């Protein structure tokens, strides 16, 4: 029995992924703060929606998907009811396995996960790290849960905040880029819908080439960049505006913010 505690955007994405991957609704429990939300989840997925403490008692795997700021309160609430040996998977940015272990007590196996919203289309990037009491078996169980909804990579916990900044938040940077490129299309007089289509198909095509060709991104970019041509004119402007440096600074800022999150 798997319980998802805090079924918001990420929790719901994981819930829908588990069901698409063949987990039966009877084997999943969700929890929600508002009654209205609980009703929506029951209707939409046919799962049981219980209190956090009931879910913690019934499930052998808990996925904690509340905001980092709400994690302390959630752990305090469930700590007295988590049976020994329950696998606790924390999906929150910035929350360390030590934070969860200290609040649950005992020798609870904790696995920290950072996934991303493409879990909704089975193309998530999930990175996982073991806490002090999590063994190979617990990492395998976590991988088995996440693999049907995308790619899973084991990383040292010391790299989790960096991974959050890179792939956890990553989809947002691409959506932002698409917005900016569509605006450029508008500036050049294109209809918005056509511009969005062109940019979306370009980003999908580029992503698939990157994933499937095995080529380095520099090689792929150079193949588009003709001497004296249009692409290099654009790249020169991107360099003039320090876009690469902006990405380095932005992702470093996201990493730093992740480090602050557990303290609220
Ligand atoms: N949205 C994203 O792209 C990603 C989010 N995350 C992580 O996932 C977690 C959730 O983020 P979102 O889904 O975006 O936030 P969200 O606000 O959509 O979901 C959190 C949900 O938890 C509920 N909640 C809070 N306290 C609760 C409690 N005590 N009992 C039951 N439910 C409770 C809230 O009502 C809300 O529905 C965060 O820790 C975030 O760091 C990780 C990767 C990507
Ligand atoms: O913005 C956030 O804090 C969360 C964590 C990774 C993606 N979204």
Automatic annotation (TrEMBL):
Residues 2-94 form the Pyrroline-5-carboxylate reductase catalytic N-terminal domain. Its main location: cytoplasm. Keywords: Amino-acid biosynthesis, Cytoplasm, NADP, Oxidoreductase, Proline biosynthesis. Belongs to the pyrroline-5-carboxylate reductase family. Pathway: Amino-acid biosynthesis; L-proline biosynthesis; L-proline from L-glutamate 5-semialdehyde: step 1/1. This is Pyrroline-5-carboxylate reductase. It comes from Planomonospora alba. Its EC number is 1.5.1.2. Catalyzes the reduction of 1-pyrroline-5-carboxylate (PCA) to L-proline. It is found in: Cytoplasm. Residues 157-261 form the Pyrroline-5-carboxylate reductase dimerisation domain.
